[in-house]
From TrEMBL:
<dbReference type="InterPro" id="IPR036291">
    <property type="entry name" value="NAD(P)-bd_dom_sf"/>
</dbReference>
<keyword id="KW-0560">Oxidoreductase</keyword>
<dbReference type="Pfam" id="PF00106">
    <property type="entry name" value="adh_short"/>
</dbReference>
<dbReference type="InterPro" id="IPR020904">
    <property type="entry name" value="Sc_DH/Rdtase_CS"/>
</dbReference>
<dbReference type="InterPro" id="IPR002347">
    <property type="entry name" value="SDR_fam"/>
</dbReference>
<protein>
    <submittedName>
        <fullName>SDR family oxidoreductase</fullName>
    </submittedName>
</protein>
Length: 259
């Protein structure tokens, strides 16, 4: 896919992996719309890359619809969607208190909250964007668009307390190929990245000794990933017309231990 002068939407693009991807797309001449709830950060990034910010909650049909309407009014129908919006939590399925031996379990509402954001929120944006891409005129090989989703290495080797997070990211991996097959007759490709330990705002807020230990746990290179490295792979998935239906780990060969 030739990226020059096309439109793209990047969710979760006010910071971290999404921000790096939005900047990389803009550097290629793409008109980028940023979907995020962090208005101040999102507006700043949009201004710096010549894009547009849309305050979007991916758990809401109305909010996502309004975001796409605003983005398309400014830039036209997007041919690229990169989904980076997401969050996490860490709660054991069931556990015993060390203080008083009381027993508690992971509340179903907290599990559902994470699934709503990470998995259903991703699918909501994918389905609505793909429907819009169907209106585009086909290009080479009948191509109309490209989509990249973000899972996690936790989809394959989740740690203690990550049942909900791993389920949400595993769901993204699991729906990659079926979506590729759903859209194959319309010239829309979809791929998924499974990032390992990356230097994102969440990680950067940790103490230095914790960050150093996390980086040292990566086989090679022994450091956390740079969001620009995620963006580079995302752009490759978009630009390489033969890449479709793939789930790719980007993790320095790490395999997460139980804790």
């Amino acid at each position: 896919m030739n990226l020059e002068n096309i439109a793209a939407v990047v969710t979760g693009a006010a910071s971290g992996l999404g921000e790096a991807t939005a900047r990389a797309l803009a550097a290629k001449g793409v008109k980028v719309a940023i979907f995020d709830l962090q208005a101040e950060k999102g507006e700043r990034v949009a201004a710096e890359i010549g894009g547009i910010f849309c305050e979007v909650n991916v758990t809401s049909d109305e909010s996502v619809d309004a975001g796409f309407a605003k983005a398309r009014a400014a830039h036209g129908q997007e041919a690229v969607l990169v989904c980076c919006a997401g969050t996490g939590n860490a709660v054991k399925t069931a556990s015993r208190s060390r203080e008083d031996e009381s027993i508690k379990h992971f509340p179903a509402a907290a599990f559902d909250w994470l699934i709503q954001i990470n998995l259903i929120g991703t699918f909501r944006c994918v389905a609505k964007s793909a429907a819009g891409m169907l209106t585009l005129e086909p290009g080479k090989d009948g191509a109309r668009g490209a989509i990249v989703m973000t899972a996690s290495v936790a989809a394959e080797d989740g740690q203690i307390g990550q049942a909900a997070y791993s389920a949400s990211k595993g769901g993204i991996v699991g729906m990659t190929l079926p979506i590729a097959r759903d859209l194959m007759g319309e010239g829309i490709r979809i791929n998924t990245i499974l990032p390992g330990i990356f230097s994102t705002p969440l990680m950067n807020g940790m103490p230095d000794h914790v960050k150093d230990a996390l980086g040292a746990s990566v086989p090679f290179p022994k450091r956390m990933g740079d969001p620009a490295e995620y963006a580079k792979l995302a752009l490759h998935m978009v630009e390489n017309d033969y890449m479709n239906g793939e789930d790719v780990r980007l993790d320095g060969a790490i395999r997460m231990a139980p804790r």
